[in-house]
Amino acid sequence: MSSIYLITGATGFVGGHLAEACASRGDKVRTIARIGSDTALLERIGAKIIRGDIMDAQAVRQAVDGADVLVHCAAKVGDQGSVDDYRTINVEALRSLLEACKGKPMSRFVHMSSLGVYEARHHFGTDESEPLPDSHLDAYSQTKVEADRLALEYQRKHGVPVVVLRPGFVYGPRDRTVLPKLIKRMTNGKVHYLGGDQRALNTIYIGNLIEAVFLAVEKPGVVGQVYNLTDGEVVSKRRFFEAVSDGMGLPRSKQMLPRWLAGIVVRLLERQMRRAVARGRQPILTPAQFKFLLLNLDFSIEKAKRELGYSPRFSFDQGMRETLAWYKQNA
Question: Whole-structure pTM over 0.85, yes or no?
């Protein structure tokens, strides 16, 4: 029996892949999309498109009415904008959705969060029991923490069937932001190591993430839970960058400094970043760049394996081959 999936952010990378996967399973898809946004994929799969804004209460009520599952993928990402700008989309739009879902016979509300909610430090097998910080250096992470807490509050107080998923760095075909920028910088010889070549990245291939969403929807007994999600294998920054450079036929990135000196430089960069952010100035490295390039980001997915039955079907090597093949054809 097919279900009706309301997917926010369906014109984006993750939401678009999820909409396509739902349609291939025979589920009905609906979304809210602004006038003028690219809805070609959604039209091709027969999705119901409600024209409007996610902040429009009337559009939200119309979209929620009759939906069996809501997967909230819409978010403001990146480094540009004030905390208030991020909070409007990442927190207040979520609040509007949660309010509209109160009392509705919906089976699941999947809130797409991020591993970025955890403290900006080295992580070695961090699991979901890790407390979230009250304040972050960047507006995106700050508001995603607030969004997680809000979603879980609505589950506890109002019975909205929330499950929170925290994926790491999502890569895959149709990514038109992070990977293209990285490839451009690699082409120009601007990606090097500062002693962090063996530190872990928290990668997750889009195909693995989509399967995790369906598990979160269909598994009984997981409402009110939070799950970390990655590819489930050690992917160092060096392995990631070399997979991209080798796949694109580009020179490999090199270690810029001896490890002992790199460690000092990293600490100085972190100090400069924190001071600049505190004073409202532009740091040499943004918080997102600092985490991506210099921190060890290893997170445990044992809870997702145990409770969701999550078993990443695509290896990192498979996922990267698919990603780069798409990029070469569409760049």
Answer: yes
